[in-house]
Amino acid sequence: MIHVKNLVKRYGELVALDHLSLDVREGEIFGLLGPNGSGKSTAINCILSLLSFDKGEVEIFGKTMAPDAYDLKRKIGVVMQNVAVFEELTVYENIDYFCGLYIRNREERRHLVEEAIHFVELDDFRKFYPKKLSGGLLRRLNIACGIAHKPKLIFLDEPTVAVDPQSRNKILEGIERLNEQGVTIVYTSHYMEEVEQICSRIVIMDKGRVIASGTKEELKAMITLGEKITVEVFSINEEQLSQLRTLPGIVSVEHIDRQLYIKSGKGSNNLEIVLDFLKKRQIGFGRIYSELPTLNDVFLEITGKQLRD
Amino acid sequence: MPVFNLCLKIFRRNWLAVFIYVAIFVAISVTIAITSVHDQSSGNGFTQQKAKIAFISEEKTPLTEGFRQELAKHADFVSIPDSKEQLQDALFFRQVTYVLRIPKGFTKNILDGGTMQIEKTIVPESVENAYIDIDVQQYWNLARLYVRHDPGLTQEQLTERLRQNLDGDTPVRMNVHEHAKTKDSFSMYYFNFLSYALSAILIMGISTVMIVFNKQDLRRRIFCSPSSPLKVNLQIILADLLFAAVALVALVGFCFLLDAKSFTTPNMPYFLVNAVAFTACITSLSFLVGNLLNNLSAMSGVCNILTLGPSFISGVFVPQEFLNDTVLKIASFTPTYWYVQANTKIAKLTDFDWQNLRPVFTSTLILLTFTAAFAALSLVVGKRKRLME
Ligand SMILES: Nc1ncnc2c1ncn2[C@@H]1O[C@H](COP(=O)(O)OP(=O)(O)OP(=O)(O)O)[C@@H](O)[C@H]1O
Ligand SMILES: [Mg+2]
């Protein structure tokens, strides 16, 4: 549905997009994950022809995207990272205005606007001016403005920044619902939990380049980390620690503040091995929990730095 | 036309700020109207202008009675006791502007072909007095003329002759003294002052809309949709022009309400043409301001500087003749100066021939040059701004 090949965008010396290539398939929720400044927004702006780029090609719906490709733009919805609404218009009027850029029929638009208001749950705020909305409500208005005209393809650039967890979940559910109705979605975020939760395929970006892509399972399979085990220990000495590190499957062990952070490779019985060891050495321990790797770990392993900064 | 409609909505949402200017403007205009109409009553309408005179006659003859009736056409008699002090006071307090005294034996002197004069005491520089002087001169010169040519006339016959002779020639004499009806008139002050209100309203309204639409995020968001930049910009311009036209019509409309009479003068069309040229100029300036400024908070300051500044130095509030040359030189770099110049010249027009109109058209042409310059600059600035994205 979207086909991007070797996109290069420079801001003077800075290469914001460095031969970026990606493909979005129809009907999926495509996640674009990367830390601040990795070029997610730049990529979206270039794909939408809002920014000129130095090299590369962009096709949407099988046609070359251009600033005047109005038939393509008509089928696309965009929610920008920066809230873009008119201060002079109320919630309702804003949604109606942006919807009106796509749909002329008044009656049809009225239904669509109502639906969008309901979708982002701004029913009680329809007469409010943007100034009177909290940051989270403003974000929701921004979303409503982008999706009211029922596009086939929606770009959402970090739509949930500053939205509280409850509303965020509602929005994510809403996006999944849209997707079930057949809408293709491109979703950027630096919250890996969100991306993990809803995206069927994910591209991880850093410094304008794609550093990994695939489903979340595929991404996690790419790295050596299998499991993260955290154990609360009451006392452990250096010798015991180094013995622990030599156990099969254990990749690293750190001891900070009576907590053992153990990383193990792939395999199913890592936790058992660790517990056996602690019991044999008669090391007292409290709470234990184990986690599967997250996208953050994927990012960390590939780039050597945390995704969150 | 969603963008066009939105622009109009933004204008409407900002009506309060605009309305404040209109309100101040109308209030001041009404004040000017009241004061200027007050002193206009003597200088403007020819039929009403009557001098208040104290008519003191030390004798009562048919001839002096005839004179009195003749004089009554152009003067209101105020009776003041014939004492020097009271007459002085009456002059000082403008109860009368002319004290006229026919000395004893005056009639006889005239009939005998003598040169005795009527005594007068006047308030200096009073326009109405001139008419009285003319009346006095005319009546008695004519009387002397008849007496010399026809010495056998009785006083009654002479009085009758004079009455017939002087009857009906009033309009002719009045025309001799006609000056432009709009000189120093309410309409001139109004149109001068209009430049202040108009520039305030237009710069506020138009640049607000421009700034809103020049916000990069909103621009980008709009261009995600299937609307072409050209059409969007045209719609904005169209809305701005409509706003400018409405503002101009409204302000001129107030002038009509306050002083409908001035719309019958031949000067009015020129005032209107000048105002239209000025509106075009300020509209163009507002585009430039809208393209240069990025945020609304800076706007009211800039708007004040751009409207009050030129108004002060160009003679909107204080007539140009009271401003010194350096100030006027600086002012001549503002369109307001040329607008006020043209207005002042238009107000004085009595003959609408090419020679008199040329300076007016020159000013208008300079206004149009300003318009083109501002428009060109704002195109350049607007383009640069978009290229920087
Ligand atoms: N107009 C611009 N001029 C110069 N550099 C820019 C401009 N816009 C973005 N950049 C740079 O391009 C790089 C990519 O920016 P971009 O906004 O695409 O990042 P992002 O992934 O969207 O980040 P975030 O998560 O913070 O939104 C950054 O280094 C940024 O500084
Ligand atoms: Mg971004």
TrEMBL record, chain A:
User: Which keywords appear in this protein's UniProt record, sorted alphabetically?
Assistant: ATP-binding, Nucleotide-binding, Transport
Q: Pfam families of this UniProt entry?
A: ABC_tran (PF00005), DrrA1-3_C (PF13732)
Gene Ontology molecular function terms on file: ATP binding
- Domain of life (superkingdom): Bacteria
Which residue numbers delimit the ABC transporter domain? 2-232
User: SMART domains attached here?
Assistant: AAA
Report the SUPFAM superfamilies cross-referenced here.
P-loop containing nucleoside triphosphate hydrolases (SSF52540)
Known Gene3D superfamilies for this protein?
P-loop containing nucleotide triphosphate hydrolases
Record PANTHER family:
LINEARMYCIN RESISTANCE ATP-BINDING PROTEIN LNRL
Q: What protein is this chain from?
A: ABC transporter ATP-binding protein
UniProtKB/TrEMBL annotation, chain B:
Which parts pass through the membrane?
15-34, 189-213, 233-258, 270-289, 360-381
Question: What Gene3D superfamilies does this protein map onto?
Answer: abc type-2 transporter like domain
Which InterPro entries does this one have?
Answer: ABC-2_transporter (IPR052902), ABC2_TM (IPR013525)
Where it sits in the cell: the answer is: Membrane
**According to its UniProt record, where is this protein mainly located?**
membrane
| Name of a matching Pfam family | ABC2_membrane_3
Give the keywords, sorted.
Membrane, Transmembrane, Transmembrane helix
Q: Which residues form the ABC-2 type transporter transmembrane domain?
A: 18-379
- Membrane topology reported for the UniProt record: Multi-pass membrane protein
Which protein, by its recorded name, is this? Answer: ABC transporter permease
Lineage of the species this protein comes from = Bacteria, Bacillati, Bacillota, Bacilli, Bacillales
